[in-house]
Amino acid sequence: MDVIGSSLLSNSPVSLAERRLAWLDVRQKLLARNVANADTPGFRPSDAVPFQAVLARSHAAAGLVMTDARHIMPARAGSLAVEARRVTERTPNGNSVSLDEQAVRIAETDQAHALAMGLHRKYIGLFRMTLGR
């Protein structure tokens, strides 16, 4: 595929929905790990970097071009996991996982997943209808 075609596909709503689904998958795994370690002494929960920040990083990195050997290339996207910033409570053994907070985040992730899947299906349906399939 040529550069123009790949550029169009990378900015399409379908591609955006796919990237959102991939991010939601990462977030769901992090939240599941937090719940699994709710009784582990000293465990600190983590969450995914907000999707908007991931998109901003990818667009900023895509816009830079290295035209000279002395240019510094932007850092690659790091880990998507960050430690939860606000620790509201901590048990005597140092564990700071709040199952209530994790349940709310899991529900938010589930709703966002359903929305992204719905958008993805709608766009694919529009393409099929356009093609007469």
Report helical residue fraction.
55-70%
Number of DSSP strand runs = 2
Beta-strand residue fraction: under 5%
H/I helix tally: 4
Shape: flat
Subcellular location: Bacterial flagellum basal body
Protein name: Flagellar basal body protein
Keywords: Cell projection, Cilium, Flagellum
Organism: Sediminicoccus rosea
Describe the structure.
This is Flagellar basal body protein. The protein is mostly helical and 133 residues long. Helices cover 59% and strands 5% of the residues. It is built from four helices and two strands; from the N terminus they run ααβαβα. Strands 1-2 form a two-stranded antiparallel sheet. α2 packs antiparallel against α4 (99-131).
Provide a compact summary of the structure.
Helix 2 runs antiparallel to helix 4. The protein has four helices and two strands; from the N terminus they run ααβαβα. With about 130 residues, it is mainly alpha-helical.
